[in-house]
User: What shape does this take?
Amino acid sequence: MSLTPEQNAEIDELRSNPSETLRVVSEGMEKHLYHAIPVLDHGFVRVIDYMGDDAAICQAARVSYGKGTKSVQNDEGLIRYLMRHWHSTPFEMCEIKLHVKLPVFVARQWIRHRTANVNEYSARYSILDREFYIPAPENIAAQSAVNNQGRGGALEGEEAARVLEILKADSARSYDNYQAMISQDGQEGLARELARMNLPANIYTQWYWKVDLHNLLHFLRLRADAHAQYEIRVYADAICNVVADWVPAAYRAFEDYRMGAVTMSAQMVDCLRRMIKGETVDQDTSGMSAREWREFKEMIDS
Amino acid sequence: MSLTPEQNAEIDELRSNPSETLRVVSEGMEKHLYHAIPVLDHGFVRVIDYMGDDAAICQAARVSYGKGTKSVQNDEGLIRYLMRHWHSTPFEMCEIKLHVKLPVFVARQWIRHRTANVNEYSARYSILDREFYIPAPENIAAQSAVNNQGRGGALEGEEAARVLEILKADSARSYDNYQAMISQDGQEGLARELARMNLPANIYTQWYWKVDLHNLLHFLRLRADAHAQYEIRVYADAICNVVADWVPAAYRAFEDYRMGAVTMSAQMVDCLRRMIKGETVDQDTSGMSAREWREFKEMIDS
Amino acid sequence: MSLTPEQNAEIDELRSNPSETLRVVSEGMEKHLYHAIPVLDHGFVRVIDYMGDDAAICQAARVSYGKGTKSVQNDEGLIRYLMRHWHSTPFEMCEIKLHVKLPVFVARQWIRHRTANVNEYSARYSILDREFYIPAPENIAAQSAVNNQGRGGALEGEEAARVLEILKADSARSYDNYQAMISQDGQEGLARELARMNLPANIYTQWYWKVDLHNLLHFLRLRADAHAQYEIRVYADAICNVVADWVPAAYRAFEDYRMGAVTMSAQMVDCLRRMIKGETVDQDTSGMSAREWREFKEMIDS
Amino acid sequence: MSLTPEQNAEIDELRSNPSETLRVVSEGMEKHLYHAIPVLDHGFVRVIDYMGDDAAICQAARVSYGKGTKSVQNDEGLIRYLMRHWHSTPFEMCEIKLHVKLPVFVARQWIRHRTANVNEYSARYSILDREFYIPAPENIAAQSAVNNQGRGGALEGEEAARVLEILKADSARSYDNYQAMISQDGQEGLARELARMNLPANIYTQWYWKVDLHNLLHFLRLRADAHAQYEIRVYADAICNVVADWVPAAYRAFEDYRMGAVTMSAQMVDCLRRMIKGETVDQDTSGMSAREWREFKEMIDS
Assistant: This one.
């Protein structure tokens, strides 16, 4: 990603004008404001605004008149309790607004999270930039042999080179033809809302995305997960770092009770109890399918 | 409404500690922060936090790198265009968090607006205060004779006195009995989650309510309307004043294109065109039902 | 609960008129249609309509042209996979519409589940019936000594009798006064929208409630849970029985992966792995708080 | 659009098996079930399931025990009243499930309507078909000269031919390369989740889309509007025809109070009243901007 000098100047100007506010301020978040965190080859995540901090979660949970916080330790205990017992509403009391630049095929996954507010750059109204996601060599991955919905190791040698060549050439040609179609130089020019259909899904788009902390954490649980597609996971990872600075106690609870947690089925819990008592359990005696048994083994093996 | 000295001290403390922020600040809103705006006899609305201002609406609509605003005049024109043409997403980019104290029967109407975040004071967990809404004499209104769902003029004389007497006596007795049931003085004490069922719908509850500007304006359009029940309308009116200070341009557009606007049916538009051409139209020749015709007349008669 | 002869006649009439449809039909659900399942002393749950069945979940997950189902066994495997891996959208493809009669304090908890459609009986427009929830003796429970938000054992003897007496007397008096205030016999009559504020939270209301299967299961997970308040849990239990007949495979998966499942934190999983290897772990060496440790022990002890 | 013989056989099989149900049946809708209504060159809309009819709207509005309908005339009056006065919840009590095949750039607009359930064909998991939207000659439109976000007349002659040539050639080449990259013939094969990024936005995707009637009508108001992009409007038009058969009274009310209605601002209403009294009003004396005045003139001129 490289911002233009004009864009950098705009960011610098925004950051050079602190104002006084009576609102809650998260010091960890102020340092992120407006800076573009690079993701993939041309993408980024930028924090545009935020509301609330760890204390605001407790304040809402307690429906307080004032700050609503007690000792920091006491607050962290409450936040962990709320997270562990699936209380969602106090976490909804924090809000974040991001500016994200991302490939269209990533945007199409992302938008499926419906409980958020979105303003996307309009390719009906405006002309898209010539910026395409071309994977780094180590991310040009083979189809997974075991998982229809995943990828295996990196392609190598000639095959990788061929893929790279195709992606670059098709991106360039599609964009050249997009420009040729909308050009009003010696012709009328095709409507932008039609011309955009020629652009492939690795072109970059951008949007403002605003979401509350509860729904953001749900997004991160799914998209920062090892099974998520790499190209959306890197955005989720970048946002995780931001959240850790914004609401550190909530983020720690999220790591312990969501990201690092496992959910065991009734059958799994039953096997577990038998195993702790010293019984040897295998798939045959577990009551689980082969697939569930494999998932169970992954949970309990270090 | 009267806050306790402790509550006032908490508010004063919150207001006495401005912090620096790089975020957008709405000066009009800063002056409201934390103060309790009295509503009804014991209720209030307090702004706890906010995100964004008029410029933030334009910034999102333009998916800008920087402030995204042009001249103030240019911005107001864009905001009016967006409002007039029912663009909802840019208005969703502003957010407000309120602390509201309100009678339960008002809360029951309010909660029907689902696109908001709510943390209500829990009567399972805590003991409710002895505070009940008792209408002022001019608000003790008769059932409307023409509208099943509305009220007519104020009751007078003995009837009004009787109503007042009933509301006061039943509130007091219910609360006394609530206390008697949960008391652990010489007895086990009924569970709070059960005892609360004895309390009438004019008891006050409170909650944190967080909503984006688009959904807030939708709420205000319905609840600040002349047909809304008085007891919720006064809350909507109080919030309207806050919004006018927070996002003045958006609020003016809201007044012009929502609150002061009318929607005319296909039939009404047809009649209108005929009338402007000089034709005399009455209900018989209008194609409307008597009720629609009456509504139409109200729209066009000054 | 007792329906009037007129209401029973309406139900009988609805059930006596089968129609032909090309839509998917769930035989298990047809037998429930319109019948009122009694809950609490005057409440009920009635299935008014439904869309989809187990096969419809698979059909949507596969985005099929036709039925989209393979063998029943194959379908159940897919449903279990989807449930286990938190795929929510295929379950959203089934929908149910219920008519529920319930005390107001239960309705106030219920409505916090926002992703549903609701039409409630309007006490602004209509007059409420004289029906109040009076707990059976075994449900007049003491405040829990260990859990601020729960109840302990049943109250006994005089204390229980006193509670019962209060609830009955206050309900009766409130309703008498409600009637007296709205009466137009020799007086104008107070507006219904005001008079309702005198009614306590154990009065019954009713609503049509429509929700998709994914959100219904989320509701049931929270409200059929042992920690939910008894008075809402009995509604959840009644609905569980209906769902088990409607989408049996999805319901079995729900029991295994939600109701009977446990979520273990990162710390818990770590302890578990150590225990399975034979290490003795106690709270001190677990890295958990006392409360978390207690919750962990409950999970693994049979 | 052409379905394969297998797909037609699946549809025929589904339609040849009527079942008995006690649920409400909409005769107008039964005839549509499963049939694919062709839209654009390869797209379609198919009704997979539905819940409710006109009477179900009234039944919910009245929170009835039985059918809840009175005379058909009475029901239509209620439906019109509900529509006119923006009552949304009774319309949410009807639900529809569609199977839609549509170009990706149309899908990207469509998905912005968040209050719906969606299952899209997964290009991570499966291989997309070689089907691209190529506009008919009359729809290869020029960029609008007056509206940044719209199209003007059809391109002609050589320019149109060139556009057509580009769209066809780029679609074919992109798909050939997509196939070449995922091929496992003599190579590992690129992961599908990556290869899809080479495909342009005119490729067809498909999804199951389920929505309630209130939100569907909101979608139709925006997308069947003359200002909507042609390629989504034709889908909205096809769905309008289905809705007219499903809930005829609600659809008539929708036409009168939404599609054929206009919303006039406070300033417009003021001008109107002056004009009806005989005053001559022009933009200068109207208090409107030039743009608003033009919109006003369009409303009142036949």
Notes: DSSP finds 13 helices and nine strands in chain B.
